[in-house]
Structures are given as C-alpha cells and as structure tokens.
Amino acid sequence: MTDITNVTVFGTGVLGSQIIMQAAYHGKTVTGYDISDDLLAELPDRWEWMRGYYRRDLADFDEAKFDAAIGSIRTTTDIAEAVADADLVIEAIPENLDLKKQVWAQIGAHAPEKTIFTTNTSTLRPSDFAADTGRPEKFLALHFANLVWRYNTGEVMVTPQTDKKYFDAVLEFAGEIGLVAVPIHKETPGYLLNSLLVPWLNAGAALYVNGVANPADIDNVWRTATNSPHGPFQVFDTVGFNVAANISRASGDPTRIKFADMLQKGIDAGKAGLGDGQGFYRYDSEGNVVEPVEDWNLD
C-alpha cells in the first residue's frame, strides 16, 4: 500500500473528471482544479453521466460508494490551495506544450516537497516539460484511457530523469485505483496504447477528409472485416472531439488540421462525442449507438 492518499487532478474535462472519479471511488481524497468556476460547475452533470456507465459496466458497482465519492471530492480554481497537501498531482490539461510548461511551473512552485508529479499527456514527450516542474526526478507519466472505469489501463512511463522509487510508487498507486498498471521503461510519445491507436485513427480520418467514404461506412468495413467492436469514428466519439482536434492541430499535418477544422463544427454545436450524446453517431442514455449522424456524410 502506498502513502498516496491526497490526489490533485488538474483539468476537469472529459478525461480529467473521469480520473477524479476513478481515484475518489477507490477511496482517495481528491481535489479537482480548473481555471474557472463555470467549468467546475459542470462536474455534477458529469458525475451523473458516469454513474450510468459505472452501473452498466461494473459488476460490483456500489451506489453508496459512488455517492460517497461524489461527496468527498473538493474543487478549486486556486493552484496553491489545490496542491497544499497533495501526495500526487495528475495533470490532464489540453495538449499544448507552452500551457503545460506554464502550469507545471506554478504547480512546482506551490506543491510541498512530498508531492509526486504525473502527466496524462497523450502525445507530448513528458521530458520536454519535466524541468519546468522544478523536480524532474519526481516527475513521470500516468496515462489513462477514456472511459477509465471500463478501459482501465494505467500506463506508467518514466522520463530519463525519473527516480525509480517514484516509478514504482506510481505503478502501485495505479493498481490501488482499479487500473491495470502497465510499466513503460523508456519514454516514447504516445505510450503503448496511442502508439498503436493514433496511426489507425489518422488513417480513418484521412479516408474521410480526402472524400473516399463516409464515417459510418469506414467504421462498418473495419468492424466487419476484423470482428472489432468499434471503428475509428466511434473511437473519435469516445475520445471526444476536443481532444482529437487539439492533437490533430498540433501535428502540423495539413490533412489532420483539416480534420480538426471539421471536428470544430461539432464542438461549436455542442455535439462533440459520446459525452454529449452525439458526435459522428447519436447515442442513447446508456451510450449505445442509435444511428449515424447523416450531416457528416460526404456530399
């Protein structure tokens, strides 16, 4: 059992809120930080959205335990308050290197000496902003998959400067909050999961952007020919358009940037994936596909 009891999560969006609940549901004392009270005010709706999925996906789901988790979660817009007693910080803010550098410098300036630092970055190299924390030997990556309670991998990845004892501690912590801890001994952008997943998603996006086929047809051929449960555009819905658009824009690739601009239309309409009940597909209250959204079809 680790000494990691007090956990602070930076970023309360689609994945950040799931990380908060995952840790709180497994008995950790969790503080969620975000930049505005308006963003924090969205969390009660996220808890109720998650409740339905926890109930559906977890055979041993405990309603009272979920309620207790909600009641235990603290939130703040003050960085110093957020990290005042943190044993572990998990950063889940947008995939922007300059923003991560800025936020980590502030976290490092306010966190107590005991705090271990982790990033959930999906595509950036943690070592590119490790120095900004002020304690790179205590800094590493802890990467979560979307729908954390169901797809419960916890990829724990070192940087060249990470002290092994903190690597071991975070691996154990991952197990304590219900994750399958996956050790990654050498830093690589994308970890194991995204190193496999992102090229596949990009291939699907390119077929659509280049006018080859509609999203639902691309998904259908993949599911039928491979017996996989989901095609790439269903995965884009699960990941959420905001995350996918940020990663695509940061790539610098013209095709991926065009795809990000297409996703932005869904974001602006408030239909940015499974969490909104609609993305490339419409979903029922339990997250099952109802039908493809024809507005995404090619002309």
TrEMBL record:
It comes from Dietzia lutea. Pathway: Lipid metabolism; fatty acid beta-oxidation; Lipid metabolism; butanoate metabolism. The record marks H143 as: Important for catalytic activity. GO terms for biological process: fatty acid beta-oxidation. GO terms for molecular function: (3S)-3-hydroxyacyl-CoA dehydrogenase (NAD+) activity; NAD+ binding. Keywords: Fatty acid metabolism, Lipid metabolism, NAD, Oxidoreductase. It catalyses: a (3S)-3-hydroxyacyl-CoA + NAD(+) = a 3-oxoacyl-CoA + NADH + H(+). This is 3-hydroxybutyryl-CoA dehydrogenase. Pfam families: 3HCDH (PF00725), 3HCDH_N (PF02737). The lineage of its organism: Bacteria, Bacillati, Actinomycetota, Actinomycetes, Mycobacteriales. It comes from the Bacteria. Residues 190-283 form the 3-hydroxyacyl-CoA dehydrogenase C-terminal domain. InterPro entries: 3-OHacyl-CoA_DH (IPR022694), 3-OHacyl-CoA_DH_NAD-bd (IPR006176), 3HC_DH_C (IPR006108), 6-PGluconate_DH-like_C_sf (IPR008927), 6PGD_dom2 (IPR013328), Mito_3-hydroxyacyl-CoA_DH (IPR052242), NAD(P)-bd_dom_sf (IPR036291). Residues 6-186 form the 3-hydroxyacyl-CoA dehydrogenase NAD binding domain.
